[in-house]
Amino acid sequence: MTTYITKMFDRLDRICYDRYGSTSSQIVEWVMDQNPGIEMYAIVLPLGITINLPDAPRKLTPPPVLKQIFLWK
User: Fold this and answer.
1) Residue-wise pLDDT tens digits, 53-62
2) Angle at CA of residue 26, ends 36 and 66, nearest 5°
3) 11, β-bridge pairs
4) Cα–Cα distance between 21 and 17 in angstroms, integer?
5) Closest alpha carbon to 38 in 24, 56, 53
6) pTM here?
7) pLDDT the model gives residue 24
8) Torsion of CA 21, 28, 41, 18, to 10 degrees
């Protein structure tokens, strides 16, 4: 587990991307679950907040892929 202390203009999705290499909603929601109370902050986190970043979960389901749609033929 890694702890991260926020700097100016940090966002949770960017922190997740730097740590886990993804900004999927599953990762961000999972990190929010690991850090109760973080959802009370705005998109840009305040300076000096400590965030726990545990090791990545082993199994994440990929997001659904939509079929390609052509507007013109």
Assistant:
1) 988 776 666 6
2) 155
3) 44
4) 4
5) 53
6) 0.74
7) 80
8) -10
User: Rounded to 10 degrees, what is the CA torsion of 43, 33, 53, 9?
Assistant: 10
Dig out the tokens for 57 from the structure: 């979960």
53 in Cβ contact with 15 (< 8 Å): yes
Helical H segments across 1-73, by residue range:
12-20, 25-34
CA of 63: how far to CAs of 6, 38, 53, 72, in Å? Answer: 28, 24, 22, 27
Name the amino acid, one letter, at 41. Answer: Y
CB atoms within 10 A of CB 12: 22
Sign of the torsion angle spanned by Cα atoms 30, 35, 40, 42: negative
- What's the whole-number mean pLDDT along residues 21-41? 89
